[in-house]
Design goal:
There is one protein chain. By secondary structure, this protein is an alpha+beta fold. It has a single domain, classed as 3-Layer(aba) Sandwich (NADH Oxidase). Helix content is about 40%, strand content about 15%. It has 7 helices and 4 strands, in the order H-H-E-H-H-E-H-E-H-H-E. The longest helix is centred in the middle third of the chain and has 18 residues. The structure holds flavin mononucleotide (FMN). Flavin mononucleotide binds next to strand 3.
Length: about 180
Amino acid sequence: MIDNETMKSILARRSYKVFDGRPIDDEALETIVTAGLYAPTGMNRQPWHFTVIKSREGMEKFGAARRSLPLPPGIPPEIAAKFGDPMRNAPVMILVSAKEGSTSLEDCCLAMENMFIAAASLGIMSGWDHATVNDLFNHAPELKAEMIPESYTLYAAAFFGYPGQTVKDRGERKGTVEYK
Ligand SMILES: Cc1cc2nc3c(=O)[nH]c(=O)nc-3n(C[C@H](O)[C@H](O)[C@H](O)COP(=O)(O)O)c2cc1C
């Protein structure tokens, strides 16, 4: 394998559940978002809308919505405590939404992966959490209306920040690859 800077960033990228809270500066954030905007899209439609939540108040809107979600009954306190910091102490969250279309899902996911790799090249890690944000949008439609354009679907949502935990070595990849 050729070990160039791009490969280093791809291999350095990991998913994080906890960040250290340090802010991401605007130049780094612009770099990350630009990487997303240059992802390929079906018929070059670029159907997406990127919502970059970088203010404390913006993040806190999600935190408040998350805390107001009812916890499942009988949940142990140590698990419930995790709901106290629903935003993973991340300084930034990026949502990629689009109008439903034949390649909208692929387009938005490719944009997010480009952003993950660009972020990793800057030492900034990421964590996908699209299911949680969708739950929040179902629970708090006014939050959805504020965060993504009307009639758009959320296809990808992720936190970005500097690592606040150590992640386990993931070892060798076991995927199946066949060359013919
Ligand atoms: C579609 C998708 C959904 C994911 N959902 C979550 C999630 O809800 N919470 C979470 O902590 N990680 C989530 N992840 C991250 C994966 O757990 C992670 O990519 C996987 O364990 C491999 O680890 P790595 O990204 O560090 O290589 C998701 C990843 C993808 C691609």
